[in-house]
Write a structure and sequence with these properties.
By secondary structure, the chain is α/β, with parallel strands linked by helices. It is 26% helix and 29% strand. The protein has an 8-stranded mixed sheet, sandwiched between helices.
Length: 423
């Protein structure tokens, strides 16, 4: 392929890149290109059956000028040059295409996008790379460091914590390479942040490193991966009628306004369907379990992260939620054990990691007495798992897209399914 090829971008594909056809008919996966735009291609990699390319924009109507000074180099917000409504339209198309091509659902029922909060300043946690006293994100398509002073999609509390980190790094001898990365997390409305440092492989903490931790620890919670924490280091996140506690380094949703809308969808959906019992698979720290318990349901949960389960048990105890049990374990193994024991639940919640729940689906279907809700951040594995579940007799009722990650191609997917006889 020559570098001067011009084409019209047809659509976006999983991963957020534009898709077009070369004159020889081969597909082109194009970074930085959006549907309807006319672009000139610069070849990045020729894969024989398709090519990867970067785009020089020649004509396009839905672009905006990013206010971020590192927008052209940072690998985080890949859709930041696109106006917000166009982002949301393309996310729906990404999900629709995955459901059609991978799931076999030509007309996904009820497909729509749900929004909440602001498209800027929403992230309650960010993971930053550390290198030689500098802090930033990976550059697009590489492991080069893009140093940052601020991040426009980060919540104000996180931005303030980033400033404190930068000040601490700027004092004294530059920090060596003993830390590979740090996650900064701050619950909405809190002035106290949690820094979760990951050590570089084989590196011991230097005196400078320990001084940095001590300085940050005067105002905030500081934890180093692999070192024991304390219960006092749990962060509290409000969820309306209840609250969630989260240990440093454990998973929480990054967009709390959208997450609360997602939680409302699960709780209200359970109420509409008359569910009284639930199984929360991949339950984390209780993002869904705790609100369902507050709504009067009884349930069980399973999660591989021991710190998440410990925080969930403490939050449930503090709030008087006794009609529940939670265990540490692999979902596939625990779901199969529950199914063999004949356990059934009126609501099953499945919120797996990006790879999906493929190995657990048979047991998950057996656990479902009435309704199943699947949540996923990956449209392709989401569609694959939905296809398997409907192949086992469940009926797809509704699909929703939650705009959890504005300025990026990522989208949170939700599907409601039911047993055919429950109609």
């Amino acid at each position: 392929m020559k570098n001067d090829v011009e084409l019209i971008v047809e659509k976006v594909v999983p991963g957020g890149r534009g898709f077009g056809r070369l004159p020889d008919g081969r597909p082109a996966m194009i970074s930085g290109a959006f549907p309807g735009e006319r672009v000139r291609l610069r070849l990045v990699r020729d894969r024989k059956s398709y090519v990867e390319a970067e785009a020089e924009l020649l004509e396009g109507e839905r672009r905006v000028t990013p206010g971020c000074p590192v927008a052209a180099t940072c690998g985080g917000c890949d859709w930041i040059p696109l106006e917000l409504e166009a982002q949301r339209e393309h996310k729906l198309e990404l999900l629709r295409e995955a459901l059609r091509r991978t799931g076999g659902f030509d007309e996904p029922p009820g497909l729509r996008i749900v929004t909440a909060g602001e498209p800027w300043g929403y992230r309650t946690r960010i993971r930053l790379q550390l290198r030689g006293g500098k802090v930033g994100f990976h550059a697009a398509g590489s492991h080069d460091l893009v140093e940052i002073e601020e991040c426009l999609v980060s919540a104000p509390e996180v931005g303030a914590a980033l400033s404190r980190l930068r000040r601490a790094l700027g004092r004294g001898t530059p920090l060596g390479d003993e830390f590979a990365s740090v996650e900064i997390r701050c619950a909405p409305g809190s002035s106290r942040a949690t820094y979760f440092f990951a050590r570089a492989r084989g590196r011991a903490l230097s005196a400078r490193g320990r001084a940095l931790l001590a300085e940050l620890g005067r105002e905030d919670v500081v934890v180093v991966e692999g070192e024991p924490g304390t219960e006092a280091e749990l962060e509290r996140f409000e969820l309306g009628e209840c609250y969630l506690l989260a240990a440093p380094g454990t998973f929480t949703q990054v967009n709390w306004a959208v997450n609360r809308a997602l939680v409302r969808e699960i709780v209200e959906g359970a109420r509409r369907r008359g569910a009284r019992s639930f199984a929360d698979l991949y339950c984390g720290s209780g993002n869904f379990s705790l609100p369902l318990l507050a709504a009067g349901l009884t349930g069980k949960g399973v999660e591989a992260s021991a710190p998440s389960i410990a925080a969930l048990r403490r939050a449930a105890t503090e709030q008087g939620f006794e009609a529940a049990s939670f265990e540490v374990g692999r979902v596939t193994e625990v779901a199969r054990r529950w199914a063999r024991a004949g356990e059934r639940f009126e609501l099953v919640i499945v919120d797996p990691p990006r790879a999906g729940a493929k190995d657990a689906l048979e047991a998950i279907e057996r656990l479902t007495a009435g309704t199943l809700v699947m949540v996923s951040c990956d449209p392709v594995t989401f569609a694959r798992d939905l296809r398997a579940l409907t192949g086992r007799g469940l009926v797809l009722e509704e699909v929703l897209a939650f705009d959890m990650f504005p300025q990026t191609h990522h989208v949170e997917c939700v599907a409601w399914l039911r047993r055919a006889q429950a109609a």
